Every structure is written in C-alpha cells, then in structure tokens.
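Q: Hi! First time doing this. I have a protein sequence and I read that you can turn it into a structure. Is that right? Here it is:
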Amino acid sequence: MPSTLLHICCAPCSVRCIETLRDEGIEPTGYWYNPNIHPYTEYRSRKTTLEEYAKTIHLPLIVNNEYGLRPFLQAVGNDFDNRCITCYRQRLEETARCAAERGFESFTTTLLISPYQNHELIVAVAKEAAAAHGVTFLYRDFRPTFKEGQQIARDSGFYMQKYCGCIFSEEERYRRRKAPKVTE
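A: Yes, that's right. Below is the predicted 3D structure, encoded as structure tokens:
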C-alpha cells in the first residue's frame, strides 16, 4: 500500500481528502503543521478537532506542535499582499521534508480541497518542495468534494473556522463584515 503524508490544515477540510485517498487504496498519515494560524486559541481549536477526528477514523497523525506565528510573520515581512505563497511554502516545504525524512513515498495537502485557496499556486509550490526534498508530490484536485466534506464536518459537530487562519485573513473577514452597505 502506498505511503502518503497528508498535510492537514483542519479537520473539516480533511474529511473528503482522507476518504478519497482511502477509496484509491492509499492509507494516508496525517501531518499537522500550520504556523500561520492566529490567534493561539484558533490554532488550538483546529488542532484539537483534528486530533479527536483522527482517533475516530484510525488515522495515524504526526503533530508538529510548533506554534510558529513569529517565524510566519518574519517570513511574510512587509509583503502582506503576497503572504499566501510564503504560507504555502512554509507548510509544504516542512511537509515534504518530513515525508522524505520519514520514508514516505509521497505527500499531498488538504489545501487542495478549498475553492478559496490559490490552487495553481499550491500545486507549483508543492512541486518545488517535492523536487527539493526528493519525494513525490501526489496531486489530487479535491475541490469537487469540498461542499460534501464541509456538510459531513458540520453534521459531525466539528469546530468550523471562519477564515483561512492567518491574522491577515481574519482582518479581511472582519473588514468585509463591517463594510458599510451601499444603497442606490
């Protein structure tokens, strides 16, 4: 059975990714590494939900418990508008490194399920990380299963986040919510 390390951003996004891989005969090992998530309470809620879910579905889970807000912010620097590529690189480089170090044949990520993420950029960054660490990037377009996975997560009572995780996306969410309505 092929061994794949699955970077997991959150439990809700993992549901259909894990099911899809298992349906293909691939038994993934989950990997938690998300230094972008802020505040710490959000980080802890997402991690705890994933840990509890992993137990219920017998998913082996590797937890990199580094709360890396400072390194994330230092990496982003003043280029806030291009923070996503930095974020993807941090997480996927670390996932590829872990996969190579632990002898996995390949790695992939639940980021590929979200219609809100830059899919093509994630793929490009993952391919770079794979080449740099000598491990295969297992590409799957999980997006068609996004809504179904989210519904399963809701029905299961998972903690459901309202933004991608970084301080900047939380700010954008807040600004959109508070934006004055334009009337004509």
